Amino acid sequence: MTIAMPKPNAKIMARRAAIVAAMRAIVPGEGVVDAGVEMRVFETDALTAYRQMPLVVVLPETVSQVAAVLRYCHENEVPVVPRGAGTSLSGGSLPLEDGVLLVLSRFNRILEVDFDNRCAVVQPGVTNLGITREVEHAGFYYAPDPSSQIACSIGGNVAENSGGVHCLKYGLTANNLLGVEFVTIEGEVIRLGGKHLDSEGYDLLGLLTGSEGLLGVVTEVTVRILQKPETARAVLIGFPTSEQAGTCVAAIIARGIIPGGMEMMDAPAIRAAEDFVHAGYPLDVEALLIVELDGPGAEVDHLLSEVEGIARENGATTARVSQSDAERMTFWAGRKAAFPAVGRISPDYLCMDGTIPRKELPRVLAGMRALSQKHRLAVANVFHAGDGNLHPLILYDASKDDELQRAEDFGADILRLCVEVGGVLTGEHGVGIEKRDLMPEMFGEDDLKHQQRVKCAFDPRHLLNPGKMFPVLHRCAELGRLHVHKGQLPFPELPRF
């Protein structure tokens, strides 16, 4: 494997007994797990190719306990890895051998639902789907809906800026987040935002969203809830080729139609999902679009007709519109279960996450086929077609000597292709360790240094989730050095104080 984590600090490892004792003093009872066999469940997240035992696992129940743990770790220079439900697909919550794994799963209460202000205040351990279930009786829901929504926690969604099948129209976590409470590495509790709309000053809430646990530990989240649309209907559209489906996606958006969701699967994913869920997917097509339109009934009927027409113009061979809400949910059930469905046809798979301009879908899909031949591994494609967020599933067998390495190389080449066509390394899974060493493909050295300076402002000792996101971690003092060349300061025209 080419991805390496920081080597454990021998001095911290030697102090393990004292660190565990300190954690037990802060979080009594069953809140500290330090036995090897009991910690095994925390050794990996959903990027299961990488495993590493933590120094100790701590499960606090109160904000004061979180603050005390972080304060102790700051004072004693012990790394900390925050963790939610452990569903990260980028290795963002992979533990450190010399670090405290701070698990927020016990923060699992919905604190307030405010229908008048259309928001909910929840603890970070509440599941994504749990918010919708709490408010659906009143006709409301929480829009971001990752495929793992039954399990993933809202705190983890904030850390990774998660999306989902309906993010095309309703946005990612960042677009549905109103406020957070978080704790700094020094143990200071800070609130950003709230039930109101945008706050004045710097957009610190935007900065914290998607920061992958590098800046602070979220202990409370305020999210926007939406009223369910009057009507929602979905249409399954089959194509002879993936390129035709990709062209259709771009054509729908170009026509000014913004569906509630627009997802795409290729033939291997279609067959796996249908065999698993029996959603009624056509099996004689090479690509399938699921397009959902929502809003007033008359508008939905009109837009469905428009979408079907655009699909026929782009070579669609089949189109089936849902006739009931139950049928619409069945369409989505197959898509939501695509990842586990593919897991039934391959011993292992890597789920990649890159985002491209929609118009480049045909080119990138063709490129992935060529890369599949180059690396001699199959790939199944399931992705958020509407916003160009790709999720290629690279199939491999970890029991075979070189297949994991080939899968990693294949994935890296896919992400390089995404950047090459004007896209980015991640759409919603985050960088974690998976894409860490690919950051220079997208950012220059100065870009990365500026990002690390933000990290230094929040965490000058680099104790929060080290080894993630940045390919080379500079110490804050190194980033702050002033380079003098031949006696000349840089930018001599600027006033200095």
UniProtKB/TrEMBL annotation:
Signal peptide: none annotated. Its EC number is 1.1.3.15. Gene3D superfamilies: 3.30.465.10, 3.30.70.2740, Vanillyl-alcohol Oxidase, Chain A, domain 4. This is Glycolate oxidase. SUPFAM superfamilies: FAD-binding/transporter-associated domain-like, FAD-linked oxidases, C-terminal domain. GO terms for molecular function: (S)-2-hydroxy-acid oxidase activity; FAD binding. Residues 50-228 form the FAD-binding PCMH-type domain. Its cofactor is FAD.
